[in-house]
Amino acid sequence: MKFCANLSFMFTEGASILERYALAKEAGFKAVETGFPFGHTLEQVKKAKESAGIEQILINLKTGDVSKGELGVTAIPGKENEFKENLQVTIDYAKAVGAKKIHIMAGKLENVTSSNWETYENNLKYAADVLKNVNLLGVIEPINQHSVPKYFLSDYGKAVDIIKRIGSEHLKLQLDIFHLQHICGDLSHNIKNLMPYVGHVQIAQVPNRNEPDVPGEINYPYILQHLEANGYNDWIGLEYKPAKGSKDGLKWIASFGYSL
Question: Which of 113, 163, 186, 243 is most buried by a 10 A CB count?
């Protein structure tokens, strides 16, 4: 198992996202993933990442003002040009930091219609074609309605159907076990059935999104072994809110028999 720190959730104690690259390295991480680094230039982010001497695995698509709940426009008719612009900006950042994966966020919607699904799929098809040309992977992630009410994509079946219809090696599923448990549970069977479509995995305990070893619904020693047994050998993003402090909360890695 290879674990990367999610800098949007970890090492946040008074540190900017630029400072978190170094903090992750100091904690022993070899790699990180991030949300889109709003407020920081491409040059600033590249310098912070390179100064820390750490690898970047994934970056989230530029989404708009997160503080206002804007989590992308991929499923919003009439905003196709904005989506294309956001995708290109994110590709530029991904190239600068060497990230090979982009999480394409769908957006939040009050009322969902068939035109939203049509727009979403058309934009993803466009993204897959663009990402093929630059040899990057796009991933889409169902997000549960408890954590992010009104998030457009919260159905694994629909996500897989779209991935299959588009049929590109440059569009896959981001499988966050935290969201999988909230949305449909039945983790053993769902992990096995979804694995052929998976391009990235993230973890956190349910229900409070803390470290995998805190009390909760998921038996992570089993789940991590199950992921490996079903063929997943890529990076696993630690997208959790540390209950014990980012560095102190990493003791679970050794106790589970792993290392950074």
Answer: 163
Burial class (CB in 10 A: 0-12, 13-18, 19+), 35: buried
Check whether the bond before 207 is cis (ω within 30° of 0). Answer: yes
Residue written as token pair 């074609």: 129
Query: What are the tokens at 193?
Result: 């059935």
Neighbouring C-beta atoms of residue 217, cutoff 10 Å: 12
The answer to whether 143 touches 151, Cβ cutoff 8 Å, is yes
**Which pLDDT belongs to residue 207?**
97
Residue with tokens 């102190």: 248
Is residue 13 part of the annotated active site? The answer reads no
Beta strands 31-34; 101-103: pairing state: unpaired
- 3-state secondary structure at position 186: coil
Task: List the catalytic residue out of 13, 33, 169, 239.
Answer: 239
Q: With a cut of 50, list the residues of the chain below it in pLDDT.
A: none
| 141, 169, 217, 228: the active-site residue | 141
Query: 248 exposed, middle or buried (CB, 10 Å; 0-12, 13-18, 19+)?
Result: exposed
CATH class given for the domain over 2-255: alpha beta
Sequence ranges of the domains in the chain: 2-255
